[in-house]
Design goal:
This protein is an alpha/beta fold. It contains 16 helices and nine strands. The chain folds into three domains: about 150 residues, Rossmann fold (3-Layer(aba) Sandwich); about 40 residues, no CATH class; about 90 residues. It is about 50% helix and about 10% strand. Strands 2-5-8-1-9 form a five-stranded parallel beta sheet. A two-stranded antiparallel ribbon has the order 3-4. A two-stranded antiparallel sheet has the order 6-7.
Amino acid sequence: MQMDALNGVDDVRALLASGRYVSDDSLATALYLSLKLGRPLFLEGEAGVGKTEIAKVLSDTLGRRLIRLQCYEGLDIASAVYEWNYQRQMIEIRVAEAAGATDRDALGGDIFNERFLIERPILQAMRPHPEGPPVLLIDELDRADEPFEAFLLEALSEFQVTVPEIGPIKAAAPPLVIITSNRTREIHDALKRRCFYHWVDFPTAARELQILALKAPDANEDLSRQIVTFVHRLRAMDLFKQPGVAETIDWANALMQLNAIALDADTVSNTLGVLLKYQDDIQKLQGGEAKRILDEVRQELAAAD
């Protein structure tokens, strides 16, 4: 689909649906405004709620290249933007010296040009692409250090990066920027102001059932309802890490591999490692607690029927 064909929020919802992503109205609205007004979209929320998937779906459905910058502690400009190809520069210097070149200023100008740049994700996203501006995913920004945020201010407000030896390199057409954060720390307001903001929450039970129907189609309807209801009960508990949508999908697919047609206490206890990622949380659920929650799930579904 072409960007020009997106004439409203419903079109964006249809676009996401074509990429097997179930969106709500608020997310579709934020994404529509971001695409139409050329502003980065800052997505914040718990891990596993589908933030990163939005960028992947956009890339697939719009036919744009996906350029992903995975953030981590210690991320710097050399890893995120560019660095000089020092080996090629040294070879160029030796070749010039062997040819009798003596003008150091001219030689310096020769080796500090774009031929010797190694482009990293942000600079790559500023370049023209045959299929159109790429989708730039800056993933888990909260894992990077605060000084890196300061650098992003220029990149996101002007859609350009400055290489001191060359000058500013500006994007001919701005990339489609998606920034995600799991909120392990607060992102500075100056960066947020340059973006449209959306909090990606856990889906409602009805929407999560729709997601399972797309991502785990082999699960029967009754089992899917039990899975979703059980997971929503867990999210109401005081756990170190609540299961995300990704874990719900993984659990449903794992249960299919075990030929489960309904939840039972033993199967739940034996597969908690698919759903929960911390031993303290698993210990809290194993045995009697899992059975108690499962009994409540059955009662809730029976009452709904």
